[in-house]
Amino acid sequence: MGTKSAKIKKMASGLEVPDSTIPSPLADPKVSKKKRNSFYEREMRRLHIELIKLQEHIKREGSKVVVIFEGRDAAGKGGVIKRITEPLNPRVCRVVALGTPTERQKTQWYFQRYAAELPAAGEMVLFDRSWYNRAGVERVMGFCSDEEYWEFLRTVPEFERMLSRSGIKLIKYWFSVSDDVQEERFLGRVEDPTKRWKLSPMDLESRNKWQQYSQAKDRMLVHTDIEQAHWYVVNSDVKKRARLNCIAHLLSVVPHKGSASAKIKLPKRAPEKRGDDYVRPPLSVQNFVPEIY
Fold first, then answer.
1. Strand-pair partners of 66
2. For 14, left (φ over 0), alpha (ψ -120 to 50), or beta?
3. DSSP string spanning 84-112?
4. Is there a contact between 87 and 56 (Cβ–Cβ < 8 Å)?
5. What ranges in the chain are assigned the alpha helix state H?
6. By residue range, what is the domain housing residue 195?
7. Is residue 61 included in any domain, yes or no?
8. Does the pLDDT of residue 14 top 90, yes or no?
9. Are strands 93-96 and 123-128 parallel, antiparallel or unpaired?
10. Which of 24, 115, 217, 278 has the fewest CB within 10 Å, making it most exposed?
11. Which of 276, 289, 243, 274 is nearest to 40 (CA)?
């Protein structure tokens, strides 16, 4: 089977995607690696163009969009976020990845530091982990009390309904990865010096609490999946499939119209009249980066 046999269908949003009733080339072991990569790059390019259309729509209409990415460590959240932001203007689409709260922030209303990062009109904000830290890592690792935990589960649906009433479109993704694949990715980070920074002591400890994280996730989904902001689970055992599936889904649930910017014709450069008042300084007075490559 080659990549050319993939059929295209149009979703309700108008987005054209491969027909899901036909096995994806990325899931077909009979398809060569070269063809799988070619299919992936072609589809990603097409989705990137669609993301540009979404960006222009958000700017034009003054929309406010929040996308939450949650999931286990090494589930592939960062890779999807990177592919979403790659073609976009950082002034329109920005990533929020908050660190450990300060002592002062710990005394604030729990949602306060997250609320400060919400979008203004014409912006889309991607939360690389979010207020749902309380339902996951804080609960499992004992960083919050039982009272704080249950208060969060009671409060967050109302908080998110309030965001919806204010005009914010909220989409929530949970990236699901199997324990075998997570272990494989952890080992890959151990071996790769450019990725070791991704492994924190908390990540290592989480390996011993797999079932507790599963229970916390299940409870979180039950209590916080609301009509105004559903949870969508992304199967992320295969990174490339997860990236395409998530981006295609995002484009399908955020209404947008229009097209990418029209092609621009670069005009010829007008002749410049050079006067005697400008003399270029000698190259010897400038500091150049050594050309070692």
1. 125, 170
2. left
3. HHTTS-TTTEEEE---SPPHHHHTS-TTH
4. no
5. 33-61, 77-85, 103-106, 112-115, 137-140, 146-165, 179-191, 201-206, 210-224, 239-253
6. 3-260
7. yes
8. no
9. parallel
10. 278
11. 243
AA letter at 215: Q
Residue position matching structure tokens 């011993």: 208
Query: Which of helix, strand or coil describes residue 266?
Result: coil
What number is the average pLDDT over the span 278-287? 91
Centre a 10 Å sphere on the Cβ of residue 189 and count the other Cβ atoms it contains. Answer: 17
Q: What angle do CA 62, 247, 259 make, to 5 degrees?
A: 50
293 assigned to some structural domain? no
> Taking Cα atoms as reference points, which of 75, 72, 129, 81 lies closest to residue 101?
129
The amino acid at residue 12 is A
Provide the pLDDT for residue 4.
47
Q: Are 174 and 246 in contact (CB under 8 A)?
A: no
Q: Which residues contact 119 (CB under 8 A, 6 or more apart)?
A: 64, 65, 66, 125, 168
- Across 19-28, 119-128, 248-257, which has the greatest mean pLDDT? 119-128
